[in-house]
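In the laboratory, one determines a bound structure by crystallizing the protein with its ligand and collecting diffraction data. In a computational setting the workflow is compressed into a single prediction: the sequence and the ligand go in, and a structural description comes out. We illustrate the idea with adenosine monophosphate.
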Amino acid sequence: MNEKNCIFCKIISRTSPATIVAENEHVIAIKDISPKAPVHLLIIPKKHIVDVQSLLPEDNVYAAAILQMARQLSAMETGRRDCKLIINNGVGAGQLVFHLHCHFLSGKKIVEV
Ligand code: AMP
Ligand code: ZN
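The predicted complex, in structure-token form:
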């Protein structure tokens, strides 16, 4: 599923550039363009889901894939097993891109929630 004018859909379809660090059938992991920690990645489902509130029962595969990708990214970060996962849902929670994504933050300066 692809939404016009969605930056993350464009990255998934390779119509916009991004630094891709991992990918599988359900999710893509990219470097955040404006990092807030030494390691700041975004885990993005390959389906245009707006936010957690919009998840459908059939989207469970994407929800699970986000956490499994976080585990995989954590294992890739040798010596940096600790990580913080953040999902902003809605304008009031600071969401700027309305395609569900999970921030993966790691390194010595992990931001506080
Ligand atoms: P949020 O506030 O949770 O919607 O976060 C959106 C995040 O996407 C921010 O941390 C941005 O820096 C990041 N971002 C926006 N556009 C891009 C892009 N083209 N490539 C990588 N990260 C992006
Ligand atoms: Zn999208």
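DSSP finds two helices and five strands in the chain. Keep in mind that any predicted model is a hypothesis to be tested, not a measurement.
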